[in-house]
Design brief:
The protein has 350 residues and is mainly α. Helix content is 61%, strand content 2%. It comes from Aureococcus anophagefferens.
């Protein structure tokens, strides 16, 4: 089995830095850990150029998109002709969704105790192998929490739009309808990405490595289940009620969001934290591998966006009962509140 760098370091020493030899005193200069500023790798020029090219492509695609291709079919309340409820009910549902997200973010930022984020670095990383403690606003570092924040902004603006529509008013000057529409599209794609990766990648991998009863796995506790599943459910509820759909020519917005998060993670790693939250954002890896991981991330985000385009545009063509059934089937396919069946059987046997 190939060992990660953290595993090799733990076998050699304390897992948090280079081991000291028994022939050398701990205070020996050669055994002293280098200063953090010396250990944090700089952002390579070619990686920065790759990110710049992706940003250019996303902005160019975004600006060249037919901006009114989908917005023209939307009312001031951000609902299409396929909406299944009135503006008042839509406003109430969006307000409720915003309150759910605001409450969850409040718990994460204010109530929950600090926790250590340990990136599963690959063996060839040049980042220091030390966990990063997150608390308060620092919890916004993770992609999942930033996705929740994005959804919170969307639901706040969309609720205001629905209230304006219910009162027969024009959109107020401070309410950017088109930007809110883009927020819906990006939030739909990334929330499904978060839930799908958690269900089909993170949870099975964690169950495989977990020694105890898998029902005690941290990813399967109430906080984490809400964080990685409810975001997707909220987007399906809004899609069903409002009849909104993703426009294929708005994919640049999703790619731009991915580029933003990479830029955020790199900047924070280089100048603030000394590490990235996920191994696939590690710019210190061998160049070919780093290019593949970052291009893969961009491709996966765009893929989920186009899957959203296909699903939401097809839903507008079918009857409401069938539409509800499709939403339930999609949510049931990617949302999980229990361990995978094979690990549930193992837990019962134990």
């Amino acid at each position: 089995m190939v060992q990660t760098r953290s595993q090799r370091a733990k076998l050699a020493g304390d897992g948090d830095g280079p081991a000291t030899s028994g022939a050398e005193p701990p205070g020996n200069a050669r055994a002293t850990k280098p200063a953090p500023a010396e250990r944090i790798p700089q952002i390579p020029t070619d990686m920065a150029l790759l990110l710049a090219v992706l940003i250019f492509i996303s902005v160019r695609t975004f600006l060249a998109s037919r901006g009114d291709a989908s917005a023209g079919a939307m009312t001031v309340a951000l609902a299409s002709r396929g909406a299944t409820v009135g503006f008042e009910a839509l406003a109430a549902a969006r307000c409720a969704s915003f309150l759910v997200i605001a409450h969850r973010l409040y718990l994460l930022v204010v109530v929950r105790p600090p926790f250590e984020l340990k990136a599963n670095y690959l063996a060839t990383t040049r980042f220091p192998l030390r966990p990063v403690k997150l608390w308060g606003l620092r919890r916004l570092v993770t992609f999942t929490v930033q996705t929740w924040t994005l959804q919170g902004i969307y639901f706040a603006l969309a609720a205001a739009a629905a209230v304006a529509g219910a009162r027969g008013l024009e959109a107020p000057p401070w309410l950017p309808l088109k930007a809110t529409r883009y927020l819906f599209e990006v939030a739909w794609a990334v929330s499904h990405l978060v839930t799908s990766v958690t269900t089909y990648v993170l949870v099975p991998a964690a169950c495989e490595k977990f020694d105890g009863d898998v029902r005690d796995l941290p990813l399967l506790q109430a906080d984490q289940l809400v964080l990685h599943n409810v975001n997707c459910i909220l987007m399906h509820v809004d899609t069903l009620l409002s009849g909104q759909y993703l426009a294929y020519d708005h994919a640049g917005a999703a790619l731009l969001y991915a580029c933003y998060y990479v830029s955020f993670a790199w900047t924070r790693a280089r100048y603030v934290a000394g590490g990235v939250p996920y191994f696939f954002l590690d710019y210190s890896l061998p160049r070919a591998l780093a290019f593949k991981l970052h291009l893969g991330l961009a491709g996966v985000v765009v893929l989920f966006f186009y899957l959203g385009v296909f699903v939401t545009t097809q839903l507008g063509e079918i009857a409401v009962p069938a539409r509800c059934l499709v939403h339930v089937l999609i949510v049931g396919a990617i949302v999980r509140f229990r361990p995978p069946p094979e690990y549930r059987a193992r837990a019962k046997a134990d």
